[in-house]
Amino acid sequence: MHMRLSNLLLVLFFATASVAQSGTDKQQQAQQLTQSAQQHLRERRPDLAIPELEQLVALNPQDVEAQGNLGVLLFFQGQYEKSVQPLRAAVSMQPGLTKLQGLLGLAEKNTGDIEQAAKDMEAAYPSLQDAKFKTQVGLALVELYTATSDLDKAAVVLGQLRRDDPENKEVLYAAYRTYSDLTGEAILSLGLVGPDSAQMHQLMAHEESKRGDTNGAIAQYRKAIAIDPKLPGAHFELAELLNTADDQKVKAEAAQEYKAALAANPNDEKSVSRLAQLAEHDGNLQQAFEYYTKAVALQPNDPDANFGLAVTLISMKQQDKALPLLERAVRLDPTYATAHYRLATLYRQRGRTADAQREVEEYKKYRDLKEKLRGVYKEMQIRPDEIREEDAK
Questions:
Q1: Buried-exposed string 121-146: b where 16+ CB fall within 10 A, e elsewhere
Q2: Which CATH number fits domain 1-127: 1.20.1440.20, 1.25.40.10, 1.10.150.120, 1.10.3720.10?
Q3: CA 360, CA 367: separation in Å to the nearest integer?
Q4: Residues 341/329, Cβ–Cβ less than 8 Å
Q5: What is d(CA 20, CA 37) in angstroms, rounded to the nearest whole number?
Q6: CATH class for domain 293-393?
Q7: CA–CA separation, 237 vs 368, rounded Å?
Q8: Mean pLDDT of residues grouped by 10 in the chain (393 residues)?
Q9: Residue ranges per domain, the chain?
Q10: Which contacts (CB < 8 Å, 24+ apart) does range 336-341 have?
């Protein structure tokens, strides 16, 4: 547990104990024990408060507050096995104590009661409000699911964790491990049910591409398409690899594959954008303009399509039309370094010096960040397809 006790004390200590037993002596004893326990906690001496809470529970086992407080303190003293009983008693007597139930699940996990731990954490997790504690319980659930190979459930929880805490390193690493395991499981399953299917060859193409074997990947895509010419995504993915070649004949083949993808799906905005890029590369600005215009119409929130159309308009000497497109591109993706650079150039041409300087600083920041990311990907020997190629400038 990497949180301070003061931040995770899940129930309050009350000035008087809710003792239902008869007898003034017992009531007075309960009040004295409660006050003494409070004092020890103010002095940060949970070790001294625990025996007094144990006496309170002995006086009245139905005292929810005393049971809960005792369970919490025992848990944070590392006495997980002893904490289970009072935590369970509190949760049983008063359903809806989700923080206590989450803590109970963690205690059960630490004592090896995996099945009950999963039940309690599953019940508590959706209703937890404290962000840090919810992440803690969620990660524990993912660990349990992974240990029992229930990867689908782990992926569902990770999706929630990533939405709630997108920059948490533990969450991101857990996601990497789980999704990697799911990938391996899917490869094995597909290999068993369809070893020579179009989908299997498409999968093998993905794996060859990840290893940097472009020729091997292209061969696998061709096999997949030969088996099923309408295989979703195959034409576009093959075109993406062919498009990396310097040979103009190969690039022409890439254009045909993009068109094949577009024939199968007329709303394939990515294929339209790639055809626009090829047209621009060949110097056919009018065709590039038409393709990019169609791409932006299909997907107005694609920063690449907005950027591509803007660059084409600049080449056509229509800077005024390009400016709002570049501004939109950086709004959609603030990390788009080249768009910041181009925008800075247009601002400078219009005498907007302060705006131009701001965009230059943004360009430098994200350019440097992406260079660092390239270094990481290079060390991992992974092809960073998602990192845009930046202009030489």
A1: bbbbbeebebeebbbbbbbbbbbbbb
A2: 1.25.40.10
A3: 10
A4: no
A5: 19
A6: mainly alpha
A7: 29
A8: 42 38 64 78 82 84 88 92 94 92 95 94 94 95 92 94 93 94 93 95 94 93 96 96 89 94 94 96 95 97 97 96 97 96 97 96 91 68 47 40
A9: 1-127, 130-193, 293-393
A10: 336/303, 336/307, 336/366, 336/388, 337/362, 337/363, 337/366, 337/367, 337/370, 337/388, 337/390, 338/307, 338/363, 338/388, 338/390, 338/391, 339/303, 339/307, 339/310, 340/366, 341/391, 341/393
To which residue do tokens 């239902």 refer? Answer: 20
pTM above 0.90, yes or no: no
Report CA-CA distances (Å) from 21 to 18, 61, 92: 9, 10, 20
Q: How far apart are CA 295 and CA 302, in angstroms?
A: 8
1-127 and 293-393 have identical folds:
yes
pLDDT at 381 (0 to 100): 53
Contacts of 174 (CB under 8 A, 6+ apart): 139, 142, 143, 158, 161
Distance CA 65, CA 9 (A): 12
Closest C-alpha among 134, 111, 130 to residue 122:
134
